[in-house]
Design goal:
alpha/beta; 17% strand; two-stranded antiparallel ribbon
Length: 390
């Protein structure tokens, strides 16, 4: 027994006989177990590999583990063997993990910012910090890829701490600015940091208490609510500190309205999948309206993510959403560029430079290359937020 519900076995047999032997073992695991006059059934998945000359046990365990996860993710197979395709995938994964670990140690993960605006007058109210990993060849690895690696390698907490350090730097930079001094700076936080009970302490350590009311923390809906009872006390402490707590990607998980009612959160961010084509998609219109109604009942403002067109912005406004975020309102950018975007948005909202009917997309100039999350895309090197070095 390796721990939890994972077990390992060594078979002294031929390659041809290994797969049938694994199936026999899985069949035995599936036999019913009687407990308190009930029959309980257990399902299992297996991954196997063939020992070759010169291979060491950690390598073999990693190979069998990769094969096991392939079978767990399969809808038809209960066992899988390690093959050349899996070897290539495992090699890529191990390489990515090592490179990411090194990047964190060297402070090579930077944080860009994207504006959030009030829908009613387009006034800027917040920015969301988005992690970026710029490579030596000026390509960029998107956050979807390396945040998954961070969770898998136990480095998520360190990534969060660097995000909080970047937030502290930005809060201090804008503190006395007459326009930017009220902007809330939001950081995405891994559920791992919340689950291990260290998040409140990290915030106290890295963010001055005077800046707490201008700090926001965002948590993905599904993983926040899946451990709602365990997370409740920390979320309550964060709210009592004056920190904005947001449920991110709302609507794509498995929210329980009971938990949503009891969780001490500040706002709900509507997932971009409901915002796309909301001007013409009647189903999305209905879903957004329903989410707004639920949030309103709970006394929570809503944020529409992924607004990319004038039509989507106008539809979101009619549906009663409080705040907006997306390329139509502002691109993720290094700090110097996002400052320019925020000042333009402020001028637009106060009518200093344009009428309220002017197309905002024409006023927001940026040199940032649009990137698809998780992909590589060339970017120009630009000034960035200060980087922390652990």
């Amino acid at each position: 027994r390796l721990g939890g519900d994972e077990f390992a076995a060594v078979f002294s047999t031929t390659a041809a006989d290994l797969a049938p032997a694994v199936e026999i073992a899985l069949s035995a695991v599936g036999d019913p177990i009687r407990s308190n006059d009930r029959e309980l059934y257990v399902a299992a998945s297996a991954g196997w590999t063939i020992v070759e000359a010169g291979e060491e046990s950690p390598d073999l365990m990693a190979q069998a583990d990769a094969a096991m996860y392939q079978s767990k993710n399969s809808e038809t197979e209960t066992s899988s063997g390690f093959d050349t395709d899996l070897r290539a995938e495992l090699d890529r994964s191990l390489d990515m993990r090592q490179r990411f670990r090194t990047a964190l140690k060297r402070g090579e993960i930077s944080f860009w910012a994207q504006p959030l605006t009030r829908i009613s007058d387009r006034a800027p109210v917040a920015v969301e910090l988005l992690a970026r990993w710029l490579q030596d060849d000026t390509t960029m690895i998107g956050p979807i890829e390396f945040t998954r690696v961070a969770d898998e390698t136990g480095l998520a907490v360190e990534l969060d701490r660097q995000a909080l350090t970047a937030a502290a730097s930005l809060l201090a930079l804008w503190e006395n600015d007459p326009i930017l001094g009220s902007i809330v700076v939001k950081a995405n936080i891994s559920p791992v940091h919340l689950h291990n009970g260290q998040l409140v302490q990290s915030v106290r350590e890295l963010i001055p208490s005077a800046a707490w009311p201008r700090l926001g923390l965002e948590f993905v809906e599904s993983r926040l609510i899946s451990a709602a009872e365990r997370n409740h006390l920390q979320l309550r402490d964060l709210r009592e500190m004056g920190i904005t707590v947001s449920i991110d990607d709302f609507g794509v998980g498995y929210s329980s309205l009971t938990y949503l009612r009891s969780l001490p959160v500040s706002e709900i961010k509507i997932d971009r999948s409901f915002v796309t084509d909301v001007d013409s998609d009647r189903i999305n219109q209905g879903l957004v309206r329903a989410i707004v109604d639920i949030a309103s009942t709970l006394g929570l403002p809503t944020v529409a993510e992924g607004i990319e067109t004038v039509a989507e912005f106008e539809a979101i406004a009619k549906l009663g959403v409080s705040l907006g975020q997306g390329y139509f309102l502002g691109h993720p950018s290094p700090v110097t560029q996002v400052e320019q975007q925020l000042r333009r948005l402020h001028d637009i909202s106060t009518g200093q430079k344009s009428s309220s009917q002017r197309n905002l997309a024409e006023t927001l100039e940026t040199t940032t290359v649009v990137m698809t999350a998780g992909s590589l895309a060339p970017v120009s090197r630009t000034p960035d937020l200060p980087r922390s070095r652990p």
